[in-house]
Amino acid sequence: MKVKVDKKSAEKMLQEYKDFIRIDHETGNLRWGSIPVFLTRARLLYDIYREIEKLVGEAAYSVTYHSLRTYGAEFGKLLRDPTYPSGRGKNRKELFENICADSLAGGWGKITIEEKKGEIFLECETGFPISQCYIEDKEKSKGPVDGFYLGYFEGILSAVDACEYQGEETHCKGKGDGKCCFVFRMYKSHHASK
Length: 194
Ligand SMILES: [Zn+2]
Prior knowledge:
Elements: E1 2-4, H1 7-20, E2 21-24, E3 29-32, E4 35-37, H2 42-56, H3 60-79, H4 92-105, E5 111-116, E6 119-124, H5 129-136, H6 147-161, E7 163-171, E8 180-189
Antiparallel strand pairs: 1-5, 2-3, 3-4, 5-6, 6-8, 7-8
Helix pairs in contact: 1-4, 2-3, 2-5, 3-6
């Protein structure tokens, strides 16, 4: 099964965001439901990535990957919640379509998700935001750079399937590949570990 996103579902998801997000004048927060949020630009994550890289070198990838994994898992739980608009998708195809629509509506990229023999392949032809900034700056990275998104999607998929996936960015536009590709393999079931 291969799932991709169409314009209509991405726009519907974006509308849901607009409907959910409000300014709380009392606290001065922007809130998505009850959660304080901020809307920001891809450049911010790129700048953070480059600063971490200056401090810890190649380990920057691992730092960014771990930092968004928990956030992804929170969103994964939401996707299973029937009271949340996008939690309606009950079957796997709808669930993957919602993940694709969310990625595009959130400005993270137009992705496809394909599940084959227990492995989940997630691809972004336009490249995830960090690699896009490399391209804009006409720079080439030594290794893959989209650890934020690898961790994010690994968190989502692990929460949705109640297991532990381990992801790898096998191709990355930041280092000159044609697209960014993630592969996720299950290595531990939550149930089996107990
Ligand atoms: Zn990449």
